[in-house]
Amino acid sequence: MGFFVCGMMGRFRDSMNDLLYKTGTRVRHSIKDEWGIGEIIENRAGTITVFFIGAGLKTLSDAYSHLLIEIPKKDSVHPVLDNLVVINKSKEISYQSLPLSIEIFLDKMPNGFYGERFLDEERNYKYEAHQLSQEILSKDNFSELLLNNNYEEITKRALSLVNKTNLIFPQEKMALKDGLKKPDLESEFSKTLFDLLYGENELKDRFEKFIFILEEIDALKWPIASYFLYIHFPEKYMFVKPNITNKAAELCGWNIKYKPKPNWPTYESILKLSNYIFFELSDLKPRDMIDIQSFLWCIEPGKK
Q1: Please, what's the largest Cα pairwise distance for the chain?
Q2: Considering the chain, what is the average pLDDT of its residues?
Q3: How far, in Å, CA of 220 to CA of 204, rounded?
């Protein structure tokens, strides 16, 4: 009889846990405040697996499940959890909390965004390219060149900007240069680049038109697709280098919906991640996405 009762009680407890701790429920730990807000990833076989913003994946047995407290819906919103990468327990996730990322960054870059090493190695040359872009592709200058159908000069200036930094691989630079040798594509590229930078339509439409032209000239790569927005308007837009961006997103636990071929949903998600990081790093006083892109480059553990 005792075994029967214990079995019934065990099944009742499991049933209650299933009801209380459904997958996707937002919770916090009643003792580990530093773990922050979490989301239940799995509730199975007497254990509950939770992804916590401050600690990554944690697995709790039934004996400790009572320490999880469900968060009211109005308080459960969090950018990382709202964009959480799909977690496959068979694959180790390399998530690291933002405080740890900041610690890694500051260890590599003493005095952060304003330190001498950061300025010399990461910021100054990118900002110089930004200043050049503002000069040679200003709206007035660009408009005048278009009015005079001087597409050769526009593409010449665009290529000079690409060559100003080492952000784009040499073979990708060459692909862009070769593609722009065709006069009809040269003019279309010039008009679409102007629209990308200064058009009044939604960014989604302008970005998609630009990547269409890049595909036409056989130069459709993420670095080229994102470079001009980033260099010209670093206060708003992010540069995308696939390996680095994917690794940084994984470290942040953020699903950027990545696809190798440049596309709007991925870029939109990268912009959301970048703005989240910018906001969260307010104590370090980042100036723009040049700082954020460099931060994401630096936070991988073990990178020199």
Answers
A1: 95
A2: 90
A3: 16
Residue 165 · residue 125 · CB < 8 Å: yes
Pair (17, 150) in one structural domain = no
Q: What is the mean pLDDT of residues 230-259?
A: 95
251 and 114 co-located in one domain: yes
**Whether residue 246 is found in the same domain as residue 202:** yes
Question: What is the amino acid identity at position 138?
Answer: S
| Nearest to 252, CA basis, from 281, 231, 290, 222 | 281
Query: According to the per-residue pLDDT averaged within each range, which of 31-40, 89-98, 122-131 is highest?
Result: 122-131
pLDDT reported for residue 236:
97
Integer CA distances (angstroms), 18 to 22, 47, 56, 84, 85, in order: 6, 11, 22, 22, 23
Same-domain pairing of 274 and 135: yes
> pLDDT tens digit string along 134-178?
999 999 999 999 999 999 999 999 999 999 999 999 999 999 999
Query: 116 is in which domain, residue-wise?
Result: 99-298
How far apart CA 2 and CA 161 sit, in angstroms, is 79
Task: Report d(CA 298, CA 304) in Å as an integer.
Answer: 8
Q: What is the per-residue pLDDT across 247-262, written as a single tens digit (0 to 9) for each?
A: 999 999 999 999 999 9
- Report the C-alpha gap between 149 and 171 in whole angstroms: 28
Asked if the structure places residue 88 within a domain, the reply is: no
